[in-house]
Amino acid sequence: MGMVAPKRRSTGASVAEGVDGRPTRAVTGASASEWMEARPGGGARIFNDEMLVSPGGGAKADWTTGPYRLTLGRRPTPGSSAVAVPAFTLPDQGGRLWSLADHLDAGVVIVTLRGDW
Amino acid sequence: MAQRYQEFLDAGVRIVAVSVDAPERQAAMVAKLDLPFALLSDPGGDGLLQALDAYDPVERNGIGRPGVFVVAPDGAEAYRQVGRDFADRITEDELLAAARELDLPPTKQPPLTPGRPEPGPQAMPVDALLPYCRGARFAAKAMGMRHPQARDDADRYVAQMDRYRDAVRALRERLGG
B72-88 pLDDT, tens per residue? Predict the structure, then answer.
C-alpha cells in the first residue's frame, strides 16, 4: 500500500492515507475527539481509547474485521501548530533531577513505561 | 532500543524513559538490563505521564501506558505512539525513521547517575525473560490461529516477542551470562 503526503484537516489534525483510502497513520497534535470531528459521518471510532478506522473508511464499516489503529503520529506539516511537549523535571534512577529543557540541545525520545516492576 | 542506542545518538536524539516507579526500582532496572539511558520516576503520573496521556489511573492504582514521543529541539512533539498494552510498541526501525526525520547532527549521552538498586517484588530476573518471551509468543500464535480477525495483531505480537528474545540473548551475552 503506497502512501501519500499527509492531508491537513480543519481541526489541525492531519492524516496520512493509503492510496486505497485506508488511513494508516494519524498525525498527533490532534486528540482523538479532534480527529473524530475531522471525519464527520463516521469512518472512525474510538475503542478502548484507541482510534480505529475501517478499511473502507465508511460509516457501514465492519469494525470487527478490519480496524486499523491510528496511534502512530508524524510531525505536523510546516506552518501548522505543532504540539509542544510540556516542560518537566523528574528524578532519575540516582535521584538527580532531570529536566527536558537541559537536553534540548538535541532531540529527545521519551519512552513511557508501565512500571510497577 | 538499548541495543541500538548508538543509532539513536547518531540520529541526534537521546532516549529517556519514564514510569511510576521510585528511583531505586529504576536503578534496579538500569542495572538489570544494562540500560544506557536514564529512567525517570513519575509516581502518580502528574509530573509528565498524565500530560502525555500516557497514564492509566485504574490499573494497579495507576501505572504508565507504553508509548514513545519524539521531541524536537524546539520542544515540539514530532511523533507519538501510545500502545494498548505492554507489547504494543512500534519497532526500533520505525522509531529511528521518525527520529531521522528531524535531520539533526549526532549527539552524545551524558554519563548516567549511579543509583541504589532495589528491585520491586514483581521484578523478573534476567534468567526468566527468555522463557517469558517464549510463552508469550506461543500464546499469541495460538490466539491468532483461533481468531483470524486478530491474526495481524497476533503476528505483530509474535514479531515483538522475537525482538525481545533477541534483545535478551544479546543482553545475556553482554553480561556474560
Answer: 998 888 888 877 777 77
Locate A42 and state its grid cell: 463516521
Q: What is the pTM of this model?
A: 0.72
- In chain B, which residues have their Cβ closer than 8 Å to the Cβ of A64? 149
pLDDT digits (tens, 9 = 90+) for B11-69: 999 999 999 999 999 999 999 989 999 999 999 999 999 988 888 888 888 999 888 88
List pLDDT tens digits, range A55-110.
344 333 333 332 223 333 444 444 444 577 889 999 999 999 999 999 999 999 99
Cβ-proximal residues to A70 (8 Å cutoff; 6+ apart), any chain: A15, A23, A24, A25, A26, A35, A44, A50, A51, A52, A53
- Kindly list the distances between the CA atom of residue B53 and the CA atoms of A28, A55, B48, B65, B140, in Å, as whole numbers in the listed order: 12, 26, 9, 8, 27
Angstrom distance (rounded) from CA B147 to CA A40:
31
Answer whether residue A9 shows pLDDT above 50: no
Contacts of A116 (CB under 8 A, 6+ apart): B19, B20, B21, B60, B63, B120, B122
Q: Do A110 and B16 touch (CB under 8 A)?
A: yes
| Residues in chain A within 8 Å Cβ distance of B113 | 92-96
Which residues in chain B are contacts of A92 at CB distance < 8 A?
23, 26, 38-41, 112-113, 115
Residues B108-141 as b or e (16 or more Cβ within 10 Å = b): ebeebbebebebeeebeeeeebeeebeebbeebe
Chain A nearest-CA residue for B122: A117
**How many angstroms away from the CA of A41 is the closest CA of chain B?**
25
Query: Sign of the CA dihedral B164, B141, A25, A64?
Result: negative
